[in-house]
Specification:
Shape: globular
Strand content: 15-25%
Number of helices: 18
Largest sheet: 5 strands, antiparallel
Distance between the termini: 29 Å
Low-confidence stretches: 1-20
Structural class: alpha+beta
Radius of gyration: 24 Å
Amino acid sequence: MDDHKPIDTPDGPALETPGAGARRYEAPPSDLPITEAEAARLAGLAHNEHLKIASGYLRGGLADGLLKHATGAISEDDGQLVKFHGMYMQDDRDIRAERTKKKLEKAFSFMIRLRIAGGVVTPKQWLALDQIATTYANGTLRATTRQTFQYHGVIKSNLKRTMAAIDAVLLDTIAACGDVNRNVMAATNPAQAGAHKVAYQLAKDISDSLLPKTNAWREIWLDGERVVGGEEEFEPVYGKTYLPRKFKTVVAVPPSNEVDIFAHDLGFIAILDKKNKVTGWNVTVGGGMGMTHGESDTFPRTADVMGFCAPQDALKVAEAVMTVQRDWGNRKNRKNARLKYTIERFGLDAFRAEVENRIGKKLGSPKPFVFDGNGDRYGWVEGDDGRHHLTLYVPSGRIKDVEGGPQFLTGLRRIAEIHEGDFRLTGNQNVIIANVPAGKRAEIEALVDQYAMTKGAGALRRNSMACVALPTCGLALAESERYLPDLLTELEESLASHGLQDEEITIRSTGCPNGCARPFIAEIGLVGRGPERYHLYLGAAFDGSRLSKLYREDVTAAEIRGVLDPLFAAYAKDRQPGEHFGDFVIRAGFVSKTTNGPDFHERTGPLKAA
C-alpha cells in the first residue's frame, strides 16, 4: 500500500503520485457516534441517514405499504428500509418496456435473502426452503456469493406468507441486506473437521452478536407485538443510524480461501497448530469489491492483515472493528462509505489503535499462513472425523431442474428426504452434501447420478461465478448469469485448442461494477458496461489475494473469445511450471500488477499485443 498516499485536500482525501513524499492521513474523528439530534444539526448527510433516523428502528411505512393492494410496489423510502429486512424490490426488466407501452405498472416483485451464518441448513430446513421456492417464488432456489439463499419473484401479497414459512423452520432474513453486518460467511470444505467447526461457530456467534435488536422484523412480517413508536427499543451497537454502509464478515481456514477473505470488510483467518487446532485468528480489515464506472475515487480493495487475536477475543474484535467503522465511516457520501475508504482516509495504524482501545488490549503480530486457491474442492472429501462430504458444482448457484440437464431442485429434494447430515452452501455458489455417514454414501451417489447433478463441470466452469443481473436486478447494465454459460462454452473450446482444458483459471462475471460475484479478484473478470458490453479485467491472484487490472474497455460479447485466445496461446507456450494464468499475464508483460485499491485505476490497458 505504499505506492499511493492519501493526503488532505479542500475536497477531502486525494492520492499523491508515487514518490511524492511521506504518507499522510486525515485525523480520525474524536466525536462520539452521531445521535438523532447531532444528525439533524449536521449538514450534508446522505438521505439514507435521515431515513434511518426517522424510521422508528426500521419500521417506516412498511406495515401500511403492505396494505395498499392497488400496487405491487412500496414507497421509495420503504424500498430502502426493507433492505434491512433482507429484501429488495425489483421488477422484471424483460417486460418493462412492454408494460410501459401498455401503461401498466412495472411487474414488481421482491428478492428475499436469508441470514444463514456459515451457510449451514438441516435437511428439514432444506425441504421447507424448497417448498417456499415452488409455492411463493419463481420455482428456483439461488445459492448466493454470500453463502446463503435468496428467492426471486415473490409478489407483495405473498411476502408475509413467505416470511412466516421461513420463520417456521427457525430461519430469518434479518440484516441479510442493508447498512448492517450482513450474512457471516465461514469456511465450508470440511476436511479439517475440528477447525471448520470452530470457524462455523465463530461465524454464528458474530452473526448473532451483531444482529440488530429491533423488533420491527417480527412485528411487521409475523404480526408480532408492537413496541409503540419504537420508543422503548434501543440498539446498543448500532444506534438509530446503524452503519454508514453494508458490512461483510468472513471466517477462513487455510489453505482454502473459498470465502475470499481479502474481498470483505472484516475477516478472521484461522491459525492452526500441527494438529489442525485453531490457536487464534489473524484479523483482516478493509476489503471490498464495489466501485462506480468512471469515478476513480471509488475502487475495489483487498483487505489488510491488521493483527492477531486469541480465540476468546475474536468476538470483541469483531464488534470493535464494526463500531469503529460505525463512528468513522463516511455518512455524507455513500459511494465512499465502506470500511475500505475509512482505512484509506485514516490509515491502518490509526484504525488498529482505535480497535485496540475499544477491546482494551493490543493485537499481536500477524501469524504466517498460506492459501492455495479460492475455489471449492469438488467431489467427495473425507474429514478427519470420518464423515464424508460431497461438493456439487451448481451453475451460478441456480438450483432448478433443467430440461435435458441437471435436475438440482428435484435431486436435492430427494437427497434431503433421506440425508442424515446437513447441507452447506459455499461462497462460490455451490452446495455441499455434508456429514454423510460412510454407510449412506452409496445411496447419496446414486441420487446424484440419477438426477445428473455432476454433468457439465469442466475446470473453467468449476471456477466460475456470476451475479443474477438481468432481468431482475435494477442495477444491472448487462447480462451475467444468463450469458456466462455460453461464454464458458466458447472459452472452453479456446482453451482446449491450446491444450489447457484442465487448467484451473478463475473467471467471474457481473452485470455492473458493484461486484457481487467478486470479479475484481478473478483471474478473468467481466464487468457489465451496457447491453452485450463488458470491461475485461486480468491479472488477479489465483488465491484471491491480489486485485486484477483493466485490460480492455467496452469489449463486446462477440469479441471476448478473440481477445483472450492469443493470451491463452501465449500461456500454453511460455508459462512456467505451476504458474497460474493471473500471474503469467503480469510476468509476461501483458498487463500491469495492481498493488492496492487506489492503484486499481492506474496503468490500465494492454501493455503489449498478445
